[in-house]
Design brief:
This protein is an alpha/beta fold. The protein folds into two domains: 169 residues, Nucleotidyltransferase, domain 5; 49 residues, no CATH class. It is built from ten helices and five strands. A five-stranded mixed β-sheet has the order 3-2-1-4-5, with helices on both faces. Strand 4, helix 5 and strand 5 form a beta-alpha-beta unit. The chain is globular. It starts with 13 loop residues before the first strand and ends in a 9-residue tail after the last helix. It comes from Elaeis guineensis var. tenera. It is an enzyme of class 3 (hydrolase).
């Protein structure tokens, strides 16, 4: 998703701003947006009244987004990160944290615009994590581009303010038009802003939790907010889960899927006799035994 074919001004030295929307909510996608233009257009850009999207009302954001889309001297792109992707990456065995996901998305936008043929010379980014480490990371990946990474960049640089509007409006529209995959009865869309502290969001989460399947795919399962809703649901502890080293489980035996019939109950080694007791039926039927010496 993004702007029209490459304009002539893209062959001039260009600047780009990058910002995100939806990092904190428990519902919906996280969106990274970028805005780029010729460096010679900076003064005009400053007169377009772009501002940090969080300080603007929805109607004003929509108006400014339509204005920048109609402006032939501006280009824009977005990366919409589905909540299912966020959950999958943050809950996998080798977890990918939100900062890494954010860095990857921002770098993906830089790569996309460069691959289009835009002569990027400067990129302004709202910081995620340590600003200097992030700048070095970006500079090493794209050595021909100057990077400025700063806190509140969306308030300091008009090109980042524009990117903030692109990201925020795109996320808002995506959330409004979200097609729920699930078809359970009594599902509704009154989920509020999607932020954990929003009463409407809290009520929606409580109403839509399922004792086995958790939440609809609109929800980011990896968010700590979700944990509080799972106190009275069916508990599953995966076989790969490890007991805490400090013994905080109170000496209780860990429940594994194999203990409840998925792969059969695995007996202790001292209970397994040479007759094949406790071994696979295939070996028992053929009276095969494990031998140490041939």
């Amino acid at each position: 998703m993004g702007s029209a074919p490459l304009p002539k001004w893209a062959s001039e030295p260009c600047i780009m701003g990058i910002d995100e929307a939806g990092r904190g909510p428990v519902l919906g996608p996280m969106v990274y947006g970028c805005l780029y233009c010729a460096r010679s257009y900076q003064k005009t850009l400053a007169s377009l009244n772009f501002a940090d999207s969080k300080t603007l009302k929805e109607e004003k954001r929509e108006e400014l987004f339509e204005n920048l889309k109609a402006e032939s001297s501006l280009g824009w792109e977005v990366d919409i990160i589905d909540p299912r992707e966020l959950s999958a990456k943050m809950l996998k065995r080798e977890k990918i944290n939100l900062n890494e996901i954010s860095h990857s998305s921002a770098m993906g936008l830089v790569r996309r615009v460069l691959n289009m043929g835009v002569l990027l010379t400067e990129v302004y980014v709202d910081t995620v994590g340590d600003a200097e480490k992030y700048r070095i990371k970006l500079s090493e990946r794209f050595p021909g581009v100057k990077f400025v990474v700063a806190k509140k960049a969306d308030s300091l640089y008009p090109v980042v303010s524009g990117a903030s509007i692109v990201a925020k409006v795109t996320r808002d529209r995506a959330l409004r038009g979200w097609m729920l995959d699930e078809t359970a009865e009594n599902m509704h869309r009154n989920f509020g802003s999607g932020y954990p502290g929003d009463p409407e969001t809290k009520a929606w989460l409580d109403h839509h939790k399922h004792p086995v399947f958790g939440f609809p795919t609109l929800v980011r399962f990896s968010w700590g907010t979700c944990t509080t809703y799972f106190k009275d649901v069916v508990e599953v502890i995966w076989e790969s889960d490890k007991l805490e080293e400090d013994g905080s489980n109170g000496g209780k035996r860990q429940l594994k899927l194999s203990n409840v019939g998925f792969t059969g109950y695995k007996k202790k080694s001292e209970d397994i006799e040479s007759s094949g007791k406790g071994r696979c039926k295939f070996f028992q039927a053929r009276k095969l035994e494990l031998v140490a010496n041939f």
